């Protein structure tokens, strides 16, 4: 039996013909990395390949690593296997990986979304025979509204809190979501303050894209300074002593999980805004159709339900288990692991 071009094993997604892994979750010699979130880029590999804009991000997280940067669409050969990286639209520096060998083409999406968020290079559809797709939000209940509408609501919420003399605290993961929020906040309302985890990542990403001015909250920042302004912080800051100096305040979370009111209640959040860096149900289906692929492999998310639906509409679809958490980690408020939001 012919060995598939990409296989899933205990270390990650493996291309045997090239002896290279894509987003491996255990230490390997050669790794192609789709993006900087902790569930996709891990420490300990001997050699890394990624998009060049992702290099400062993963070096910030992983330290001094042996990494090579590639351009989008640039072809590179490993043991006669042809690889290229293509925009995933997930966060800054995120990529899909195209793999071609002996006339067969596979694409691994990593995490992706098809809406242009204004900070990452927009998603590019890549033709292939087999498409490996995440399906974090692979249920019909997940249907995103355009981000312009979401940010109108976020800025209106901030302005309303300002009138009432409250500080607005907006939670989003320090890599990706936080910068997307900051980019679209209306600075005519007031100042943007940040948690240290967010500001540290901002300093890295400012070398790649332009962001509005932000101010780091320190021990010397007073309650009066914060009143009426907005604070962008990771979810792990919620319920900690760090936010006590901000009373009176209102909290909000920007996440795809805010589709479900129960998620907001479980997290004791005052306001929920439905904003995700992943595809919704229709986005997933649209992306799959545009690839022209006949074989679809679903990973991390509602894999069984999503694959069953794909089979019902004519695809050769199956699932594979990975150690990617995706936005599922947002349901755990006890940690900030910099996975996708």
Report on the structure:
This protein is of the alpha/beta class and 341 residues long. It folds into two domains: 7-142 and 277-331, Ribonuclease Z/Hydroxyacylglutathione hydrolase-like (Metallo-beta-lactamase, Chain A, 4-Layer Sandwich), CATH 3.60.15; 147-273, Rossmann fold, CATH 3.40.50. Helices cover 22% and strands 24% of the residues. It is built from eight helices and 19 strands. Helix 8 links the parallel strand 18 and strand 19. The radius of gyration is 20 Å and the shape is globular. The model is unreliable at 331-341 (pLDDT under 50).
Question: SSE layout and pairings?
Answer:
Blueprint: E1 7-8, E2 13-15, E3 20-22, E4 30-32, E5 47-51, H1 55-62, E6 67-70, E7 76-78, E8 81-87, E9 95-101, E10 104-108, E11 130-135, H2 147-163, E12 167-171, H3 177-184, E13 192-194, H4 196-205, E14 215-216, H5 223-226, E15 230-233, E16 249-254, H6 261-266, E17 271-273, H7 281-291, E18 295-301, H8 303-312, E19 316-319
Parallel strand pairs: 3-4, 4-5, 5-6, 10-11, 11-18, 12-15, 12-16, 13-14, 13-15, 16-17, 18-19
Antiparallel strand pairs: 1-2, 2-3, 7-8, 8-9, 9-10
GO molecular function, one term: exonuclease activity
Keywords: Exonuclease, Hydrolase, Ligase, Nuclease
InterPro entries: MBL (IPR050698), RibonucZ/Hydroxyglut_hydro (IPR036866), Xnuc_lig_assoc (IPR026360)
Features:
341 residues, Metallo-beta-lactamase, Chain A, Rossmann fold, 2 domains, seven-stranded mixed sheet, six-stranded mixed sheet, 8 helices, 19 strands
